[in-house]
Structure prediction request, 1213 residues.
Amino acid sequence: MELHGFSSVSSNMAMPSSSSSSHHERFLSSSSFFGTRIGSRQPNISISGVQLGKSNNSRRKCATFKRHVTTSILADVAKDFMTFQAPMFTKPEADPKTVASIILGGGAGTRLFPLTGRRAKPAVPIGGCYRLIDVPMSNCINSGINKIYILTQFNSQSLNRHIARTYNLGNGVNFGDGFVEVLAATQTPGESGKKWFQGTADAVRQFIWMFEDAKHRHIENILILSGDHLYRMDYMDFLQHHIDSGADISVSCIPVDESRASDFGLVKVDEEGRIRQFLEKPKGESLRSMVQVDTTLLGLSVSEAKNFPYIASMGVYLFRTDVLLKLLRWHYPTANDFGSEVIPMATKDFKVQAYLFNGYWEDIGTIKSFFDANLSLTDQVKDSIISHGCFLRECSVEHSIVGIRSRLEYGVEMKDTIMMGADYYQTEAEIAALLAESKVPVGIGRDTKIMNCIIDKNARIGKNVIIANKDNVEEADRPSEGFYIRSGITVPTTSDAIAMSITKLSLTKLSLKSLKRVTAIRAPELSLTEYTRLLETCIQSKSLAEGKKIHQHLLENNITHINNPFVLEKLARLYVSCNEIELARYLFDTIPEPNVVFYNLMIRAYAWNGTFERALDLYYEMLQSGILPNKFTFPFVLKACSGLQAIEDGREIHVHAERLGLNLDIYICTALIDLYAKCGDLDQAKWVFDIMSRRDVVAWNAMIAGFSLHGSYDNTIHLFIEMQKEGINPNSSTIVAVLPTVAGANELKQGEALHGYCVRRSFDNDVVVGTGLLDMYAKCGCISHASRFFNLMDVKNGVTWSAMIRAYVTCEFMREGLRLYDRMVIEDARNLTPATLGTVLRACAKLTDLSKGRRIHCFTIKTGFLLDIMVGNTLLSMYAKCGIIDDAVRFFDEMNPKDTITYNAIISGCLQNGYAQEVLHIFHEMQLSGIEPDSATMVSVLPTCSHLASPQHGACGHGFSITRCFVADTSICNALIDMYSKCGKIDIARKVFDGMDRRDIVSWNAMIDGYGIHGLGKEALLLFNKMKGVGLEPDAVTFICLLSSCSHSGLVTEGKQLFNYMIQGLNIVPKMDHYICMVDLLGRSGLLDEACKFIDEMPFMPDVHVWGALLAACRIYKNVELGEEVSKKIQILGPEGTGNFVLLSNMYSTVSRWDDAANVRIMQRDQGFKKSAGCSWVEINGITHAFFGGDRSHPQSEQINKILDELVVEMTK
Prediction:
């Protein structure tokens, strides 16, 4: 069959013709398979051009009928649904409303591998635009059965998605009062509930409770179907036979000959059609014992009975509901399979009836049966089946099935092949962009020849490829080469490398004899043409070893050809394609006068390999040698500039392109846009974009990605809309570029709209787009959406797993993140990345889950990830945040190499754990090691100075920050304000504050808090008013600082006003810290009764700190009675330290109740609390002197105490 141009042939799938085989001859040829009403009750009804056949059962014809809505499904991924009215006769005995069907999703499908590698058996495409599950679904729908359950377990996502898209009740399919419901394998309480489906019967048993529910009381019969059989059957005939025979169980059977009998479960029936014996796949004597004496009992002719002496079960069962419940629940509670256990045992105690189905039926259990069944469907149409929306350009297709949205380029020859099609289209611009990058688009490239093959969905097959099993290999597993062979049928894989793998398969075969000939030749017998063809073969197949042999042969035998420019170019391309860049460069350097083609080849290789400096150096070397660049040079050298952020070199190269008149070339302009955007010059990028006379999707993507990279949401969305107005359809790369800026702007509605667009264009099947979508949902706070989408993804890579784990951790779902990591280790450990481990370790740190962290540490040692410095830094941070500072320091000492982040992690950990002196020591060590501190280092070092009350060290840190220009960083200035305030230098803190170019809310809060520490409450209030004057909105922390300032300055009225303003004026909900400040404010002012009332009116239970603030006030004002009541409340809540014991003891001491004070000290000791000795320190000439209560270890202790005694005398005068 020769096909030209665009084909949109809607070939309805039909049963195989009489020419298929003897087994195929018995099919009922009255109607088309899909989209028709099986066994229609009214003849000659035409639906969408399909003529419906007459009923196969004349006794069911009646003069009157009732109209009833049923549905025929002809659906592809684009959700093209149709609903039609068809008559249905009312049969009181066989009422489809009393039947529910259960379609079994099947097992792992190992015999159909690799087609079942990522999909369930029933989801395997068949007949061009259908799936195997559509067979029983169509039979059910066209038989009037509209209550359908589908049980799934293995690789169920692909099946679930097809069911949701094709049989979605909300999208055009009318099931009346029926439903299509997917029941996924799940675990339930109890020991038995921990197991997955153990077999067909066990799968139904796990959901049998549904039919015990009152709402299913009208379900009288349950139909059990397989999801991977190919046949057409009116189940109402089956049901009528079931009712007429009074059967408890009916088994649909087919007659088979001896050659096929051992593949099935066989039955023996008596003269009434009752099954008396049932054996599953018998062999030898058991098989011979199952020969049916007289199969004419089931309605076969004498000749048919002779040819088909065995009766085989089709795996289609009809149970009375009550019988099924009894069998699975009570009679055989441990039986797992219907065919091998339940039905054979039931034949003894229940009436099990056989129902003869004398039509076409095939179990799609193997690659061979799948292949034959598909191609048999072409027997009733001329040569082949071509599905909807295919592009076929002057190609030849013979005895094949071409699936939906397939693209076959010029000169393609296809024979005896099943091509499953594609989930999406690629535009001409997308295809051109891929070809320009030497990549392969979806479809089959020109002049490719394919024979006896199954091509899975979304396959990418390049040009001049031959896929043919010429050696007649029966079985082969060669995933590394891109294909499997099953029963002599070639099944290419669908990985990203499919084009190259298939090219390797074909081209290596084409040139195998020539390659062998090369290794044997000792004289220059090969022509130049043969050499170049062989080298091209090696390039296409990336066969480095064979290419080196050819190179060696050239060097040894043919000095003439080795200096030929064509040969040299092929050799250089070979080494570049095999990522042997140094070999390619060595070859390049041996060429006396390389032309622009050679320079372009090497510049491109360096640019793609990431060695951007060498690409740029080679470009300038080319200019110095007098060779002018061409339009193929600039895109790659500009890519190198982009990678280096070398905008000045990029501008110079832009000028070079202008001088050569190439600055308006579409590829050069696109590279310039990418360069300027990544270097931050968006205005220049937009100018280049605007002057382009023609813009393809890649140019639009570059400009959109530039705006998105810099967080310009409005410009990104504007361009996204404009490109569509100009007729350019966004592709998956466009979506990937837009999603980050949508996430950054927290525009969930826009993100959902993009998701909808992806579904319509089938971009959501792309793993990169899918990862971007779930990342967008996570960053917009919709973790449930992200999780659901992650679970629906067919293909996940390391980035996908890492993004989902990071989403959980970012949204504070730490445990879920750790569980997902455990799942990844089990399911997809090969895709673990350092980024994934870093995210998981951060979760351990947040949970202070040291045990999990240590296990991951061990895992990184065993897998070698510990050598990654990012993983090491995260481990270090985890130990520090878990408070295990000794382990952190030990691990830090073992790390090699270290970087700035390493030092920052240990410095921050020491500071958080109170090891302030150690921070300065490590900071000094960092400087000696030659590693430069950054602003993050100083943000940890400066607070250390305030912890040590060391203003001199703080001043040194300030000077260091000035010399390194860190003070331009707002966070550094904030740390300086805090440090100077806590070191008693409030005037210097204010100078830093006043000298800031940019202040954030933290800057104002730090300065207000500094005034509060020094008792300068009025200055704090003045600064607050100034803050409001500049238009900055205060936050909850601002009011904690203000209330604390008022408390330390006795500004009760102002504090009350601020508290009310926070609640009523700014709608800030007070937290516990605000209430603590207010109690402290009232208590310090002696308003104890008001403080008590304030506590009583709190909207939540006060904690120990609230009562502690009131207890401190009781001590000041000697209110022992109230203090004792407060102390009792603290004891009930549980004291958190010695502070409250000391307050109570001191309160008793102030009123001379020494015994009570002593009792408090005893209680403190008995409860395990030990008061730390009081400490004070002073810095003199850069040296910090610390003094502890009762400690006389200071070398000048004697002189110090002598001076103190003199001061006491002076003070008492």
User: Anything to note?
Assistant: Confidence is low (pLDDT under 50) at residues 1-91, 169-174, 495-514, 516-524. The two ends are 122 Å apart (CA to CA). The chain is about 50% helix and 10% strand.
